[in-house]
Design brief:
Mean pLDDT: 86
CATH topology of the largest domain: Porin
InterPro entries: Porin_dom_sf, Porin_O/P
Order of helices and strands: HHEEEEEHHEEHEEEEEEEEHE
CATH class of the largest domain: Mainly Beta
Strand content: over 45%
CATH architecture of the largest domain: Beta Barrel
Number of helices: 6
Radius of gyration: 23 Å
Number of domains: 2
CATH superfamily of the largest domain: Porin
Low-confidence stretches: 1-41
Helix content: 10-25%
Protein name: Porin
Shape: globular
Strand order of the largest sheet: 1-2-3-4-5-6-7-8-9-10-11-12-13-14-15-16
Structural class: mainly beta
Oligomer: single chain
Largest sheet: 16 strands, antiparallel, barrel
Distance between the termini: 19 Å
Number of strands: 16
Pfam families: Porin_O_P (PF07396)
């Protein structure tokens, strides 16, 4: 028995060592294989990196899994009934040398080319970052990281969200960059961040290419300022942020996002507000109406607004229920030769969900989720041949976070 425990401990240290090395080497793009293995001794990599002293403070590895049987309808007609694996993600995180931390996460659902041109990293890698706690107030984070957009559905684990809004599905959530966090006190924190505003080139960002006469930007960056505030014993959580960047030459983007949360058992409620004003339609939600009868066109001068209301109620130790509503609107704010100003799309959806936790203090849960979504296109959008429609879905699923160590 003792030998088995020793063997498990050895393998755990090996895995931790490999992932520490992987995360630290992301910025270099590759690591020399000769430096990973020594032919002259059997000293673990971690010990060689720390001069023979083990400095891993903590480490965690898990696999996040969400699968469901989905029955989907379009305009009340059966579209598809099939089993879906909505999410599988591998996550490794930990700390070393007291002041440093690392976080790596990869989605196994997302297929991309091995190296995206801009950040030289597969798009399936959501997080690959290292944090440095400079002192009690300041912390630096470098690498691919969450953009500091402020809404509950941005910072909560995606494995807990059954259906995102269109805004959240198209916003660039994970980007390579640098963040400086300033903790004023236990209740207030500020983040100052500069990241890329896209992963690939402009052709990947704009599904129909840039409008005629618009040139790609040479500075595809997004600057974000964020404030997190906690009140009433951290039951009330407020997060607000402003972001500004360049989508194309002389075509910028502005974001205002905020999350307002009340988290005190048995209730969890939140209201998210998101607004973007874009010189060129980076989300493509308005532009897609132009592609119905032929080649699509990227629409300039658009803005989007989305609000989300959600209320969870923990009925009992094993049961949770929630109701959720989403309203979205897409507009052209400045007319041009092809597009007149005004509203082009309105979207709303209602969700009901019942969750059952078979085990106490466990991430294992089963759920029944009902979705009704209506996409209403105005006369301005229908003039391009697009039509309004609605979508319904019934999902019976399973969510589990498998702790590897």
């Amino acid at each position: 028995m003792m030998g088995r425990l020793v063997e498990i401990k050895v393998w755990k240290e090996i895995v931790v060592s490999l992932f520490v090395c992987l995360t630290l080497s992301v910025g270099n793009g590759y690591a020399q294989s000769e430096s990973m293995v020594s032919s002259t001794d059997n000293v673990p990599l971690l010990e060689r990196m720390t001069d023979g002293k083990r400095k891993v403070d903590w480490a965690d590895m898990n696999i996040q899994f969400c699968s469901a049987a989905d029955v989907s309808f379009n305009n009340a007609k059966l579209d598809e009934a099939a089993f879906k694996v909505h999410r599988i993600r591998l996550e490794v995180l930990g700390g070393f040398h007291e002041k440093f931390s690392y976080h790596f996460r990869q989605s196994l659902n997302q297929y991309t080319t091995p190296n995206i041109p801009l950040d030289n990293l597969s798009g399936s890698v959501e997080l690959a970052m290292v944090g440095w706690q400079l002192n009690d107030k300041w912390k630096l984070t470098a690498g691919k990281q969450p953009v500091q957009f402020s809404r509950y559905e941005c910072w909560v684990n995606a494995i807990k969200v059954r259906h995102y809004s269109d805004f959240n599905n198209t916003i660039p959530c994970y980007q390579a960059g640098l963040n400086a966090a300033y903790k004023m006190n236990d209740n207030h924190e500020f983040n100052f961040q500069v990241t890329n505003n896209r992963n690939g080139d402009s052709a990947d960002q704009f599904m129909y290419g840039l409008p005629e006469g618009v040139e790609p930007t040479k500075i595809p960056l997004l600057a974000t300022v964020n404030w997190d505030g906690y009140f009433v014993g951290h039951a009330m959580q407020l997060r607000y942020s402003l972001s500004y960047g360049q989508l194309a030459k002389h075509k910028n983007v502005f974001y205002f996002t905020c999350g307002n949360v009340w988290d005190k058992k048995p209730f969890l409620g939140y209201i998210d507000f998101m607004y973007s004003r874009e010189g060129v339609d980076s989300k493509g939600l308005i532009s897609e109406v132009t592609a119905v009868n032929g080649e699509g066109t990227t629409v300039p001068n658009v803005d989007y607004f989305t609000t989300i209301f959600n209320l969870d109620y923990r009925v009992a130790s094993h049961w949770n229920m929630y109701v959720k509503g989403v309203y979205e609107q897409g507009n052209v704010f400045k007319s041009n030769d092809m597009f007149s100003s005004g509203t082009y799309r309105r979207v709303w959806n209602v969700q009901l969900c019942a969750e059952y936790y078979p085990l106490k203090n466990s991430e294992l849960l089963c759920y029944l989720h009902l979705l009704y979504k209506n996409i209403h296109l105005t006369e301005k959008a229908r003039s391009w041949g697009a039509e309004s429609y609605n979508h319904q879905r019934i999902s019976l699923g399973l969510v589990y976070t498998l702790p590897v160590f």
